[in-house]
Amino acid sequence: MDFFKFARIRYEGPESMNPFAFKYYDPDERIEGKTLSEWLRFAVAFWHTLNYDGSDPFGVGTMVRPWSRTSHPMDLALAKVDALFELCEKLNVEYFCFHDRDVAPEGATLRETNKNLDIVVRHIKDHLKTSSVKVLWVTANMFSNPRYVHGAATSPNSEVFAYAAAQVKKALEIAKEVEAQNYVFWGGREGYETLLNTDMQFELENMARFLHMAVDYAKEIGFNGQLLVEPKAKEPTKHQYDFDAANTIAFLQKYELTDYFKLNIEANHATLAGHTFQHELRYARINGMLGSIDANQGDPLLGWDVDRFPTNIYEATLAMYEVIKNGGLSKGGLNFDAKVRRGSFMPEDLFISHIAGMDTFAAGWKLAYKIIQDKALDEAIAHRYSSYTEGIGKGIVSGSENFKTLEEYIIDRKELANVSGEQERLEALINQYILNYAS
Ligand code: XUL
Ligand code: CO
Q: Looking at ligand 1, which residue's alpha carbon is closest to its atom 10?
């Protein structure tokens, strides 16, 4: 049975006014031996696309969803998997991501919950056999159920730690079964509200113990996907332990976990941390830790995680600049951790939003590729640091200078000649690339 009345979305080019066609994303376009779809590796997020009903703190659900006629929880779970595969195939999206609790209802015990999961995972595997769609990543939801009120791995309650461990054990087994490319840890409630009741050091040590146990189990069962940690500064807790890329990398370094983990960087989480998306991607990249991306966008006027579909070409271009400089994302991809607005409640909005996101990132990728090919920024940056390629600068970099020799070198100098940073010229140059691309 078809849930969506739409045909498969195809590339029609920038002149097309068909809302159900790609204008910039041609999945088969080849660049440097890879297709655009291989470069971008788009994924649908199960939770936003199949589960989000449009409710907010002020009102009930608004979404019109063809599968919601089914009311038995397990029938509904299976129908959503069918709808997911149909949607991905029709959208030309090759991957999807899911939390354990997105796909199957919880039972009275973990054993019962796992039984429900097994039934749905079998159904997912049946689809995987006949479809070109694959799993980008799996994760465990350790934040919705009230048992996680004080955290999961960082809960003060050791029984909750045990429950979370058993939940991740099962989720890793599922990740292996569905051949997920990655496994994500987002510490939804791994943080605190007040230090008056919190042993921060102990909680951080427990988080490290937990991640080491996960590494050990992934090795034991032979799961060879990439493990990822997804930083987020705040929400739901006031202070999340994995605040941003720098904080998360420092944590992974301290607890000797950097060999096993990379980061999943999300645009709206970057802005919650007071950074740009590009900053977070750059920080992860230069530390060899850029693994995957949750593609969405925040709202500059709102201070929380709104998970809008990404349509900002400027941001997408600078993000793709980092991805190309990273040599691609390897096992990672671009997961639309994004939801349609409450007012965009029709099934077609699910298509139009993903098409908009895919076109935005395809255009951003091609723009970034051109900027890199032309060395438009590289040359300006090389010029800016050129004083380190000769003379005293070269000595500083090679280690032949010290405070005494540097003092001797500079002590009688009257004026130092700084040069312009050219910020406005470079901003105008990026505009020119974007506007010329459109014309
Ligand atoms: C929450 C968020 C999560 C993770 C997976 O802000 O981004 O959906 O991506 O748990
Ligand atoms: Co996310």
A: 186
What distance in angstroms lies between residue 271's CA and the mean position of ligand 1's atoms? 14
State the Cα torsion 181-42-46-220 to the nearest 10°.
Answer: 10
Write the DSSP string, 204-234: HHHHHHHHHHHHHHHHHHT--SEEEE---SS
Q: Which residues contact 168 (CB under 8 A, 6 or more apart)?
A: 140, 142, 210, 214, 217
| Residues 277 and 265 sit within 8 Å (Cβ to Cβ) | yes
What was the pLDDT predicted at 158?
Answer: 98
Q: What is the pLDDT of residues 360-371, one digit of tens each?
A: 999 999 999 999
Position 282 scores a pLDDT of 99
The model carries a pTM of: 0.98
Q: What is the pLDDT of residue 1?
A: 67
| Residues paired with 226 in a beta bridge | 182
Q: What is the pLDDT of residues 86-97, one digit of tens each?
A: 999 999 999 999
Q: Which residues are catalytic?
A: 99, 102
Q: Is the CB of 192 under 6 A from ligand 1?
A: no
**Closest C-alpha to ligand 1, atom 4:** 186
Instruction: Give the pLDDT of residue 101.
Output: 98
Confidence of residue 68 (pLDDT cuts 50, 70, 90): confident
- Give the ligand 1 atom nearest the CA of 305: 6
The ligand 1 atom at the shortest distance from the C-alpha of residue 143 is: 10
**Alpha carbon distance 265, 334 (integer Å):** 10
Q: Which of 328, 329, 279, 271 is nearest to 302 (CA)?
A: 271
DSSP assignment of 164-196: HHHHHHHHHHHHHHTT-SEEEE--TT-EES-GG
Token pair for 296:
């969405």
CA 294–ligand 2 middle distance (angstroms): 5
Distance CA 399, CA 382 (A): 20
